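Q: For a teaching handout, I want to show students what a protein-ligand complex looks like in token form. Below are the inputs, and the small molecule is magnesium ion. Please produce the holo structure.
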Amino acid sequence: MGGPVEKLNPRKPSAITQKRHGETDGRWGKEVEISEITLDEVRRDAVSFGLATEVEYQMNAGKEASIFRAQWKGHPIILKVYRLWQTAQAVKKKGFFAPGKMQVLAAKEYDLLMACFKAGMSVPTPIGRVGTMLSMRYIGNDRPAPQLRNVHLEDPELVLYQILDQYLLMYATVHYVHGDLSAYNILWWENRPWIIDVPQAYEAGPWCEMDQVVSLLRRDIGNVLSYFKRYGIKRDPDEIVDVFLSEYVPENMRNYDEQVSVLPRGVTLE
Ligand SMILES: Nc1ncnc2c1ncn2[C@@H]1O[C@H](COP(=O)(O)OP(=O)(O)O)[C@@H](O)[C@H]1O
Ligand SMILES: [Mg+2]
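A: Here is the structure, written as tokens, with magnesium ion included.
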């Protein structure tokens, strides 16, 4: 390593900067502008936007967003902040594309959480969204709810069905596939699973690519099933996908439905 950034700025790059470095094809310096957000900046923005009355500490830093524990008048809440990350090159070509994209993700996450909540799913209730920040219910008490991958379940079979029921509600009622469902994005709290982290969901609506819907469904369900292997539970993901498709297919995709249900597995129309 050792690029222009380190010469200009002798501080050791933070872990997250190093992580991002791996995602910029090894380019450092002028081409890569990284905007880190400090706790103070988040606190100032979130409070002035009216999303929180206090921001306590950062809980988690993902690829595109950071999670903060915050408060609304004494009640714990979660603040999810999409960060700007752009190359100088991209800025020249696309103007404010990168910040715009982050706002779109925050808005999508907020809207979809709201739709899932209204459909009766166990998701963190969304509270507000301004720009690249959204606030939602904090799942946990003095400790945040654990991710499913870190939990040992007493009745895994029941939980598998709870998760599939929740996901079916999302697919058949809200008409979205999650797109990143796994034991990382399911929290375990109050004896039931909570689905989180929805901004990359794909709409199963009249304009969708049905192949895309099916492959995301299969991947999500496969991820969930792979967590349950540790309990000796084995299910055929394709059978579960078929159940989903038998519950809902967009009106104008009925052809697709017929193809799927009429033809034997593995046989496709030319
Ligand atoms: N509403 C919430 N309540 C409690 N913990 C949360 C909440 N939302 C997120 N977290 C914690 O933060 C982690 C990252 O959040 P997530 O929305 O999955 O963002 P990322 O895009 O970084 O994966 C989650 O796996 C979970 O541990
Ligand atoms: Mg996540």
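A: Two things your students might notice: The domain at 19-137 is CATH 3.30.200.20 (Phosphorylase Kinase; domain 1). Residues 1-12, 25-34, 86-90 have pLDDT under 50 and may be disordered.
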